[in-house]
Amino acid sequence: MGYVYNVSVRPNKVVVLIHVSSSDILIPKNSLIEANQVGLFNDIVIDITLLDNFYSIAYEYVNPSSVQCLRSSFICYNFYVKGYKGLNYDDLVRATTRISQRFDDPRFFNLFYMLLQNSIDISSEITYLVNYASYLFFNLANLFILLVLRYFV
User: Fold this and answer.
1) Collapsing DSSP states into helix, strand and coil, what is residue 74?
2) How far is CA 72 from the centre of its chain?
3) Angle at the Cα of 30 from the Cα atoms of 78 and 54, rounded to 5 degrees
4) pLDDT by residue (tens digit) across 7-65?
5) Cβ atoms within 10 A of the Cβ of 2, count?
6) What distance, in Å, lies between the first and last C-alpha atoms of the chain?
7) Are strands 31-38 and 84-85 parallel, antiparallel or unpaired?
8) I need a labelling partner for 114 at 20 to 30 A (CA). Which of 9, 79, 89, 129 fits?
9) Considering only CA atoms, which of 87, 84, 76 is closest in space to residue 13?
């Protein structure tokens, strides 16, 4: 399909120049383009995900280096396209380290234990309340039926 030709880091962005091996490969303009780092050596992989249904695009072959490409729904030769930062191995390791540090904190487990204990206590109180409320409503309904039968029938 192609390869990453050059990566240049700028103050607020990273410009990745990719080379698509064939002019027969057409990339729709409405695509999600992500630069991901994979592997131990942080190789850069460009993922291109089609956002629309491919069959909804008016497909007619266009040469990416021709003038007709400008009016088409495909990315043309030497175009700049906004992409997004995808998966990064360093970010994944950093996030995993933070999560493990939070779970390693004894204060977290004490607070979590207190939350569970209070939840159990509250649920038993709610069960007790619902049980007695249903008993009360049952007796009130019977009393209401007796009053209706006695005074209105």
Assistant:
1) strand
2) 31
3) 115
4) 777 777 777 778 877 777 888 888 888 877 777 776 777 888 888 776 655 567 778 88
5) 13
6) 88
7) parallel
8) 129
9) 84
- Beta strand 14-20 with 2-9: parallel, antiparallel or unpaired? antiparallel
Task: Give the residue among 31, 12, 11, 47 at the shortest CA–CA distance from 79.
Answer: 31
Distance CA 145, CA 147 (A): 5
d(CA 41, CA 90): 11
DSSP state of 30: S
pTM across the whole model = 0.48
- pLDDT for residue 1 is more than 80: no
Considering only the C-alpha atoms of the chain, give the largest distance between any 2 of them, rounded to a whole number of Å: 95
The CA distance from 57 to 10, in Å, is: 34
Here the tokens at position 49 are: 């995900």
> In 10 A of CB 72, how many CB atoms?
20
The DSSP letter of residue 14 is E
Gyration radius (Cα) of the chain, Å: 32
